[in-house]
Predict the 3D structure of the following.
Amino acid sequence: MTNSAITASGLRKAYGEQVVLDGVDLEVPAGSVFSLLGPNGAGKTTTVHLLTTLLRLDGGRAAVAGFDVATQTRQVRSAIGVTGQFASVDELLTGRENLQMMVDLQRRARPAAVGELLERFDLQEAADQRVTSYSGGMRRKLDLAMTLVSRPQILFLDEPTTGLDPRSRRTLWQIVRELVGEGMTIFLTTQYLEEADQLADRLAVIDHGRVVAEGTPEQLKRQIPGAHVQLRLAGPEALTSATRVLTDATPDPENLILRVPSDGSVKALRSLLDRLDEYAIEVSEFTVHLPDLDDVFLALTGSAPSAPSAPSAPKASAS
Amino acid sequence: MKNNSVVMLRRNLRHTTRNPVAVFNAILFPVILMLMFVYVFGDAFDVGGDYLDYATPGMLLLAVVYGLSATIMAVNSDMTTGIINRFKVMDVSRGAVLNGHVVATILRTSLAILAVLSVALLLGYRPQASALQGLSAAGVLLLVVTAVSWLSVALGLAAKTAETAAFSGVPLVMLPFFSSAIVPADAMGTGVRQFAEYQPFTSIIESLRGFLAGSPDLTQTWVAIAWSAGIILLSLVWSGRKFSQRA
């Protein structure tokens, strides 16, 4: 059994009548990336605040790096690093001064970390400029660099790429992968399904303060039906005959579309094409649809994700 | 690792020097106000003597309150931008974060007081205080500055948004105008006069005025000290509560 970096059971947090977290259980193995995925207001940031000792639990227990978050606050804090949703950098200081401040404030920090981190995050050129002049991507990088000064065992990233352009997002993903490679445990919250899919070893989907699903991205995708082939027929007659041949398909006469359930395997596709050929049914467009996390999300929470994820391109397409 | 309070203080001092608006509000604006009251309005007020002599202690106090909004805003922005969460997770103590703000405010305000005092001396202000009375005046001022600095920290912590923070400093800036700082309370309308007689700034100014004129008013001085001590105590409790509330 691998040892756990984070274990939480029955996490509860309420503000008066409003219950924000309603019994959340989590288990994050050391050295892995765990993603908490959910729409705005689902309880992601509250979970991070509870696990990082910024908020008090109203119920349940949690241990981070083996220390109880309620009673061993100091030990938990010395093992973790947190980079929040809003870049917590000092705007009036330069990048270098921000990093230096982190070194000055911590016992375990090495002064050499300032130069190393500036280089690693490609911030050398802007190092002596005030953060006010930094782009959003540079701020996030500096923010993360500041968190890494103390070389935390467990890194909490609360929506690290919200509001970033695709390029900066990819840079950040790359950095996260490197950190995992160095043995760091990462707890990442995101509302981008693609991000969880790209980075996470395991993920939990949270909605209205409850975990509605947990597993690897593959397991979650497999949980829901939704793989199908979409056929666009040449005309109404073709649609009628195709519907007669493929009895398990769902027609959409208005758009001349037929949805055929399929696992998307080559074998299944070949046999489908063979049958269409056999009956001389003319198909003008052929698309294979595999479920992505968007479908998972929709199926689990009953609502579309609140933030647009990158449009999922069809996995295969032919005309 | 360095002393956390020192790191925080250095951060706050850097903020002050890099924020021209704060420097203007805290140091130049009181000087401008001073010149305006003495040269533009001064002759219109009958204070029973030289207006410069009457107004200088009040102007020193204006120098104190004008710098406070910078502190309120700075504390508030620390709390709302998330950097405070970073400090909390790093186990930087509440004391270090807040002391940094208070000490930076005291230093900045002292600079403003010196600037206003220098201008007053250039204009011909001649205090009659003995060395001991001068020191007593400085002592009262320092206590008052400490009190309003802590109050500003508490106001900055309590404000939920930058707008509320900006607004919460306004009463502090207005209060000296409704005291005997600019004109004697006797010259005001009934309601305002009663307010002016009992609000803290009047005792503070009368105490300063007494010391600087060489005729100390001990009663007002004790009242001023009591007000300051009360404000410090209240602000400490209030900011302690607000600091731990926010995550």
In short: The interface with chain B takes residues 49, 52-55, 74, 77-78, 80-82, 84-93, 97, 101-102, 104-107, 109, 130, 146-147, 150 of chain A (CB under 8 Å).
